[in-house]
Design goal:
- There is one protein chain.
- The chain folds into 2 domains: about 300 residues, SGNH hydrolase (Rossmann fold), CATH 3.40.50.1110; about 130 residues, Immunoglobulin-like (Sandwich).
- Helix content is about 25%, strand content about 25%.
- It is built from 10 helices and 21 strands.
- A hairpin with a 5-residue loop joins strand 5 and strand 6.
- The longest helix has 20 residues.
- It is globular, with a radius of gyration of 22 Å.
- About 50% of the residues are buried.
Length: about 450
């Protein structure tokens, strides 16, 4: 299933600054073609999407399950993006029954999803209006699908739809005298593998999916740049997982997402999602309109930070755990210093849990020190310690989580806070993380 968003400005395509060097000033009134008309000859677009010959089209697909397509949300906000017009190219047998794309001025789902806000984050970065860059966003998610169904050769055909879209946009760009690059694919997923208790292979699926993308997409585009798989850390309410006794499997998915982003250079964890509001209800599976907007802005911000720098994004996350004078000290990678507490989050012990050889350890105090969190135990520690963050749910947030953030003050098009929240993690003393395979063995027991 496909719907594509193209963001433009009145004088030409917005250059969002970062995918390569600045192209310099220039006009978009000559040597251009209408990108929409080369995508579909039946289109009567409200506005033109000119792309200058020699320019570049950047395609950013999204995939995943229901939270990747705005399930449970309300209508899209009618207000246009700040610098241009928002259009959708919709098509694909799973969504509309159409065999070829058509253009619509509305989200084909008529629901708010992360894609809208993700695009607006790029548009807010516009630095020039020279028509040498175009940005296209497409969505291929299908609700309720386990990872294997979305992978290459999976039962849904979602992966093949991505490749079809890449080929379609590449041909359209070529006819306009432009080239195509796919720098990122946003992937929002994890609930189904937990509920079906197949989380033990989630880390392998992530690696295989990223590897397939980096084999198949460059074969079409001839790009030298990697296709980075930008994921969010799943955070859904316990209702469904309590009924299926699969909460620990959901924790395994969360850990696999974080750990694979540490081990695989093409997998990027944008951040957790427990800080985003969920639709009220026993299950707590889907985000509200505002939640999807926050998700999209987080993903768009991270992509924008990586663009043109060559540096991989690392979220607010632990680097090591050590004992120090009877305390436990966790050192963090902090995107924007200093560390802070979100005092609206009421998680017990700010989301931290400590255990040692003798079992769970109560905490006397928790404090911030530079780029570290210091846990003061209520008793003497025995043996190696283990720290867990965000595992337990609490009143006011069925998804669990904690209160640790950084001080990122990136401007939000929708007025939200874009501080980075700490990933959900489990880590032992001496910099050892819990290997996904070890975690899988524990779950099988």
């Amino acid at each position: 299933m496909i719907f594509t968003l193209v963001f433009c400005v009145a004088a030409g395509i917005a250059a969002f600054g970062g995918f390569g060097d600045d192209d310099g000033p220039g006009g978009a009134t000559s040597g251009t073609e209408n990108l929409e008309t080369v995508l579909s000859k039946d289109v009567r677009p409200a506005e033109e999407f000119p792309i200058m010959k020699g320019g570049t089209v950047y395609l950013i697909p999204s995939s995943g399950q229901s939270n990747s397509i705005g399930a449970g949300s309300g209508p899209v906000k009618p207000a246009p993006p700040a610098h241009g017009n928002l259009f959708a190219i919709q098509g694909g047998r799973k969504m509309t029954g159409l065999s070829e794309p058509t253009i619509s001025a509305v989200d084909p789902y008529r629901k708010e999803s992360h894609v809208t806000a993700m695009g607006r984050m790029f548009e807010g970065k516009a630095t020039s209006k020279n028509g040498r860059r175009a940005y296209v966003f497409s969505s291929h998610g299908i609700g309720g699908m386990r990872f294997s169904a979305l992978m290459k050769g999976g039962s849904t055909g979602s992966y093949e739809d991505i490749l079809k879209t890449v080929s379609l946009v590449k041909d359209a760009a070529a006819r306009a005298g432009a080239t195509l690059i796919v720098p990122y694919l946003a992937f929002i997923h994890g609930e189904s593998d937990a509920a079906l208790k197949v989380a033990s292979s989630y880390h392998e699926n992530l690696n295989d999916y990223a590897a397939s993308l980096n084999r198949d997409i460059p074969e079409i585009t001839a790009q030298k740049e990697p296709v980075r798989l930008v994921i969010s850390q799943v955070s859904s309410g316990p209702g469904y997982y309590s009924m299926t006794k699969s909460w620990n499997h959901l924790w395994q998915v969360k850990q696999s997402q974080w750990l694979m982003s540490r081990l695989n250079p093409t997998i990027v964890l944008a951040g957790p999602t427990y800080q985003f509001p969920l639709v009220k209800g026993k299950l707590g599976l889907h985000f509200t309109n505002a939640g999807y907007e926050m998700l999209g802005e987080m993903m768009g911000k991270v992509m924008r930070r990586m663009s043109g720098t060559g540096r991989k994004w690392v979220p607010l996350s632990p680097k090591s755990v050590r004992k120090e004078d009877g305390d436990v000290v966790i050192a963090f990678h902090v995107p924007v210093r200093p560390l802070r507490w979100d005092r609206t989050i009421t998680a017990p012990d700010r989301g931290f849990e400590l255990s040692d050889k003798a079992g769970r350890v109560n905490l006397k105090s928790i404090s911030l020190r530079d780029e570290e969190v210091v846990l003061r135990p209520a008793r003497q520690l025995r043996g190696k310690v283990r720290v867990r963050y965000g595992y337990r749910t609490y009143a006011g947030n069925p998804a669990g989580g904690g209160a640790l953030t950084d001080s990122d003050n990136t401007a939000s098009p929708n007025g939200f806070s874009l501080r980075n929240y700490c990933v959900l993690f489990e880590m032992t003393q001496s910099r050892k993380t819990l290997n996904p395979r070890d975690r899988a063995r524990k779950i099988r027991k």
